[in-house]
Amino acid sequence: DATWAHIGEMINLPAEEVRDAVAPVKDMYIVLDHTRTVLMVIEDGSLPSNVGGGSNVRNILRRVFAILEKRCRWASLGMDVLIELFLYHNVDLEPIYGAFKDYKSFREIIEVEYERWQTTDVKQKEKLEKLLKKNKGELGMEDWIVVVTSWGIPPETIE
Question: Cα separation of 93 and 82, whole Å?
């Protein structure tokens, strides 16, 4: 909040207006970075899962889904455009890494993760609501770690 206030003072705008103007662009960069990361990790042989590095892949991908949903982008973009974004990353990264082999099950991996995110998200939010009620609306650092890493709830979706 102090940073937004400082920036607002520098450009003579209220902190909230600055934050509201920057947030959609920030989210766009997060989606672009995260989709490129997921592409590289899956191309390298890792898969989304509940343990180890795979849980990181799952959480990163779920953050993409959550941001697109929060910004009301999923309804207009959908799975086809998301997969197309991954393909653009392939083209963009080709001069650096060479051509990527055709990964026939890549789309299926993303689709399965989206379906899992949709069905488990409700259960995880119920757990979060119980935890918030128990802690009188406050989450300690250990709670945040559990919510984000074990339950797969992106921090941006917690209000």
Answer: 17
Per residue in 47-67, pLDDT (tens digit) is 998 888 888 999 899 999 989
Q: Which of 58, 59, 72 is nearest to 27 (CA)?
A: 72
Nearest CA to 113 among 79, 89, 81? 79
What is 28-71 written as a DSSP string?
A: HHHHHHHHHHHHHHHHTT----SSHHHHHHHHHHHHHHHHHHHT
Residue 60: both structure tokens together = 């990163």
**Dist CA 115 CA 125 (whole Å):** 16
Residues 6 or more apart whose CB falls under 8 angstroms from that of 82 comprise 35, 64, 68, 110
Q: Which of these ranges, 16-30, 82-96, 108-122, has the smallest mean pLDDT? A: 108-122
Question: Do 72 and 25 contact (CB within 8 A), yes or no?
Answer: no
The H or E element that residue 157 is part of is none
102: left (phi over 0), alpha (psi -120 to 50) or beta: beta
Phi, psi of 151 (to 5 degrees): -95, -15
